[in-house]
Each structure stands twice: as C-alpha cells, then as structure tokens.
C-alpha cells in the first residue's frame, strides 16, 4: 500500500489514453482501504476508484487520488437445494470469476462471459449481455463508505438496479467502494440462448444439447469476432446504451425505416440497438486520424494509438448529434467520461 504521485494511467485504462493521476495507491484488503481513507493527505482529495479501467474515458489528468481495487478471492459461502452463494472480491477480474463458476458448474453468468472489468465495478452499472443482467444473479454486496471507511451491506433491492444503472451511479455516486459481491447462482441450469446469435453459434458448433460451458464458449466466440481486444486496439467496449423509446415513436420510425430492429421492454416502450442507429448514420468503420468507429461493431469507439480523450469524446458527441438529427433519438454514453 504505497502512495505514488504523478502516476501514469495509460496502462490502467483500456482506451490507452495517456494521462496521469496526481496520486495513486492500490489496496488489497478492506483494512488497507480503510487505512488509505484515513490518511490526512487524502482526506480532501477527489477520489476515483479504479477496477479494470474498462468503462472510462479520460479527457485530462486526474487531479486527485486514484485508488485501485486489488481485493481478491472467490469462495462458495453457502448452498441450498437450488443455489450456491459465491462471494468474490471486488478486485477480481470479471471473466476470471465467470471461469470459476463454470469450473464449479454453477449457472447464471455464462452469458456475461468475456465482459471486461472487475467484479467490484460490475454492480455499479448492472452489466448485461445476451439477455442477462447482473441483477438476475446478484444477492448482496459489501461496500466501504469513502468518507468514514465503514462497511455497509447492500441487498439487490438496495442497489435499485436498472438498465446499466444502479443507486451507485445516481444518489450514491462516488460515495462507496465495493469490496466484495455475493452472487446467487443456479445449481440446476436455466439456459438463455434466445438472445443475439447464441443459438446460431451453437448450431454452427454442432451442439444440440448445450451446457453452461457451451453457452459461455459461444458468447466468447461472438464477442471475439465482433469486438476488438483492448490489448491490441484501445477501446471500452460498447460506448453507448441501447436507447429505450416509446412504442408510438417506434411505430412512426418503423414506417420510415421498415428494417429497424427493436426489442420489447414493456407495453409502452421498446429498446432499439444503438449500433444499428449509428451504422445507419454512416459511422461504422469510419477512421479519423488515429481514432474512429470499429469496422465490425458501430457501438465501439477505438483509439488506434495516440488519440486523446478529447478526440474520442468529440467523436461520441458527433455520433450523438447525427443519430438525433436522423431519428430523433438521443444516445447516452455507457462509458464514464472523466
């Protein structure tokens, strides 16, 4: 637990933006975190909690302290006839946790395979993919209050999960640090293969009776074929949320654009794929100097090397404006712009 100053953050954000933090420290336990939070020199500093840096776009140096969550450990804490309750440290890599569940034949997160980031960051935005959201398997989490260091338990209801939303992105934003999460995982599996290309991919793999391991393999294959590896091309995965719009508006747009896809959310709203909207505006594969929009997935903005956070931010704003002008739908970034 060493406090470092003028710390380079380029290796700690998947966009690979070259910025620095005024101060930086990593904690590997709740006790170390509490000790850091009580340090007089950090009391008044702005604080940023860093997991895998996969949901951040830095547009400038961070004038405060970056605290990296390094709390590890995964264990089954109790079981009943239907479920196993698995506790994971906030600093665990998300996909490493998914692999643990597959090794122990526990279902529920296989559709969330290969999502970048850490366990501690996952509940903050209620990560989701291929018809599954974190809230579906979430039991509770423990978090430390940034001001006092005291820990508090939050239940599923306490977290107030929504689409890429939680209480930690709203009224409790910047007030807590997630130290561990407990998941409620199925001992008897309930596969979800209806969303996206999972069913087609399984058929191509000649699998007719899939296991959770097969579903995970299919999801990994789809993601690797569509999304660039941040280790090779700087990106933060999906940059925008899929917008939810009134059915009335969708019906009007559908008359103009018969091929427009949508997924029902309720009787009154539908979700439209942001990637489709962006692609229709001509952005897919567009390269502007050393940054642009990925050629295989219009939702992904990329840094080919040396781009600034301002460059990517301006690209995002231009995309938002063009989609709004064409469709009357305003996109919302999923990535946190700092």
Automatic annotation (TrEMBL):
Q: Which residues cross the membrane?
A: none
- State the protein's name: UDP-N-acetylenolpyruvoylglucosamine reductase
Necessary cofactors? FAD
> From what superkingdom does this record's organism come?
Bacteria
One GO cellular component, as annotated: cytosol
Q: Does this UniProt record's set of keywords contain Oxidoreductase? A: yes
Q: What class of enzyme is it?
A: oxidoreductase
Q: In which pathway does it act?
A: Cell wall biogenesis; peptidoglycan biosynthesis
Q: Where is the active site?
A: 164, 238, 334
Q: Which GO terms describe its biological process?
A: cell division; cell wall organization; peptidoglycan biosynthetic process; regulation of cell shape
């Amino acid at each position: 637990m060493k406090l470092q100053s003028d710390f380079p953050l380029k290796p700690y954000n998947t966009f690979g933006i070259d910025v620095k933090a005024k101060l930086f420290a990593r904690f590997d336990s709740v006790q170390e975190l509490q000790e850091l939070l009580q340090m007089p020199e950090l009391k008044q500093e702005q604080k940023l909690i860093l997991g895998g840096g996969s949901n951040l776009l830095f547009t400038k140096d961070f004038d405060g302290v970056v605290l990296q969550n390094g709390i590890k450990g995964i264990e089954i804490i109790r079981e009943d006839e239907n479920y196993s309750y698995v506790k994971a440290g906030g600093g665990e890599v998300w996909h490493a946790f998914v692999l643990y569940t597959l090794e122990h034949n526990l279902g529920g997160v296989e559709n969330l395979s290969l999502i970048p980031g850490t366990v501690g960051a996952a509940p903050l935005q209620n990560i989701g993919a291929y018809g599954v959201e974190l809230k579906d398997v979430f039991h509770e989490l423990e978090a430390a209050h940034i001001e006092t260091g005291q820990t508090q338990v939050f239940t599923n209801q306490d977290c107030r999960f929504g689409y890429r939303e939680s209480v930690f992105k709203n009224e409790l934003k910047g007030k807590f640090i997630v130290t561990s999460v407990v998941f409620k995982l199925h001992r008897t599996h309930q596969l979800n293969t209806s969303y996206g290309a999972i069913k087609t991919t399984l058929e191509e793999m000649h699998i007719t009776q899939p296991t959770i391991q097969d579903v995970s393999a299919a999801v990994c294959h789809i993601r690797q074929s569509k999304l660039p590896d941040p280790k090779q091309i700087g990106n933060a995965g999906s940059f925008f949320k899929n917008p939810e719009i009134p059915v009335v508006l969708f019906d009007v747009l559908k008359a103009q654009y018969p091929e427009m896809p949508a997924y029902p959310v309720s009787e009154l709203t539908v979700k439209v794929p942001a990637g489709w909207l962006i692609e229709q505006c001509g952005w897919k594969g567009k390269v502007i100097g050393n940054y642009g929009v990925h050629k295989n997935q219009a939702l992904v903005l990329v840094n080919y090397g040396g781009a600034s956070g301002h460059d990517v931010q301006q690209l995002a704003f231009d995309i938002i404006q063009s989609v709004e002008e064409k469709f009357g739908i305003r996109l919302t970034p999923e990535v946190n712009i700092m």
